[in-house]
Amino acid sequence: MLLMQAGLMGVFVAMDALLFYFFWELALIPAYFLCSQWGGERRIAVTFKFFIYTFTGSILMLVALIYIYLTTPGHSFDIAAFYRAPVNTGKESWLFWLMFIAFAIKMPVWPLHTWQPDTYEQSPTAVTMILSGVMVKMGVMGMIRWLMPVMHLAFYQWGDTISTLAVTGMIYASLIAIQQDDLKRLVAYSSIAHIGLMCAALFAETQSGLQGVMIQMFNHGINIIGLWIVVELIERQFGTRRISELGGIAQKSPALAILLVVVALANIGLPLTNGFIGEFLMFNGIFATTATQYYIVFTVLAGITIILAAVYTLNMIRKVFFGEPNQLTMGGYSLRPNETVALSIIVLLILAIGLYPNLFLNITRETSEFILSQTDITTFLKK
Known about the structure:
By secondary structure, the protein is an all-alpha fold. It contains 18 helices and no strands. The chain is 77% helix and 0% strand.
């Protein structure tokens, strides 16, 4: 677990393309062994699929990084040299797709998402928390730091195509989540929908959208980990994750129900929670963009997923926590002090960021302005 976290940290702090790739691969190796060693019954097949998907994307990205390295003055992997690399415009599209596929697999973006629900379901909950709370953000961060500024022309040209994939994935994942009876798979498909919105907001290429993505990366990590903690507590106590087998937990465990409801409402994006801030900025960025002529269509279709998110989230809360307790849940669940502290910290962060988002807006403003200055198509064409 510590080795995987070291790889993840390296990915986020690397300012050298070779180091970035090294840590990108390093994070995969311990994740593979954690899932295959301590996962569920189908862990071997599922983990192998996860490894093949991610490793294939990594190889494609390596080809793109080496090509860009060869075009840089002085042959450098430094991020500043990559930003100044005179990539041939005729070859920029295929370089863009080589890098985008690697990031899209990790996020994941539809239709490259199929490894994610199975991996989340079969992995130990502690590993799933790292995969969904941190590892998927590697793809989002890679797009912000390494794809937008380096492949800015192709990023603009393929914006409509990628946004279509992202919005399609949001609706698809939301509809599938409504049908789920397994708590882990429901949360997994919910995560795909949220990541799809981040992807669409990135390709809007607006400051509002970019800041929303940066803030939502952090917020999504908080909210999704809160949901995983509750799922783990329920499975540990009652021996099942099946929604149809649970019910009435709120009558016996009101504290757990209250904490879950706050986390779940933040996951929907209710005002005064952290989820609302990021989603509002991203929707505003998509609607205000000039990078696509289909901005209204993308905004409306993405907005539908908010309603769908409310459907599957509130339905899950109603079935699992309300109604009459059954024979399985009659005993309820008493939160231990460490569990109460962990969930309380998450709830406090949700409310604090929702009430005072200016702290994160100040942190992300300068970075978003710099990234967008590197992707200004008008400036590029003048050059």
